[in-house]
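Same chain as my last thread, 272 residues:
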Amino acid sequence: MLHSLVPLPRPLMIGEVLDAGFRLFQNSLLRVLPLSAALVIASQWPSFFDSLRGTLREPLVQKDVLWWLVYLLAAAFGAWMAGGILRRQVASTGAASAGAESSLRHVLLTTLPRVPGAIVLTLLVSALLFAPVLLGLAGLLPAGVLLAATAACLWLCGRLALALPLYWCEGLTVASALRRSFWLVRGHYWRLFAIVIVALTVMLVFFFMLAMISTVVAPMVGLRDLAVIGALQALVAVVVGAVAAPLATALAIVVLQDFSRRSSDAQEQHIG
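reply #2:
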C-alpha cells in the first residue's frame, strides 16, 4: 500500500526547499544508490545496442522496430527504478510505515504494477517539451503562432510537472495525478521554475567538475589511450547520473510537501 506524503509544518522559502531536498538526498543516498545506478545504466541500453550493431550515427527516424523495443524496455525499467527511488525516499521522510515500506523487495513489488501509468505520464509531459521543437523543425506554423504554441506547451508542462512524483508518492491514478499537479502548481509556477533552474545549475556544475577532473587526471596517472579515457569518462557519467537522480527526486518530494502545505493554507484562509 502506498502512503500520502506528510505535509510540512509550514511553507518554506526557496532556499529552505533546496536545503531540505539536499538533506533528504544525503539521508537516503546509500539506500537508493543501487536503484539510481540501475536507472542510469538502463538509460544507456539503446546506445549499447547501437554500438553492438554499428548504428550509432543512424538518424532516429531510421531506427528499426527492434531498436524501439529496446528503447521502450529501457524506459519501462527506468520508470520502475525511479518509482523505487521515490518510495524509498518517502519512507525516509517518515511518511510511510517503517517496516515493509523500507524493504527494497517490497518497494519493487509495489511499484512494478504502476510502471505503465508512469510511462504514460512521462510520455505526456515529454511530448509537451518536445512538441515546440518538432513544430519548429517541420516549419508548418508561422513564427508568431509557433511562439504562442511554445509558450502554451511550456506553461502546461510546468503545471503538470509534479504529476509523476504525485503518481509515485501518493499512489494516485494517472488522471488524478495530472489534475492534482495542475492545481498544486497554480500560483506557484515561477517558484517551481526557480527551484528547477537552481537545481539544474548545481547538477550541471557538479557534472562539469567531475568531467574536467577525469579529463585532467587521466593523463597525469599515465592513461593516454583515447579508448581508456573515453571509458573513464563514461564511468564518470554513470556515477554523476546515479547521484543526480536521487537529488532530483528528493527535491521533487520536498516541493510536493511544500506545495501541499501552501494549498492547505490557502484552503483554510478561503474557508476562514
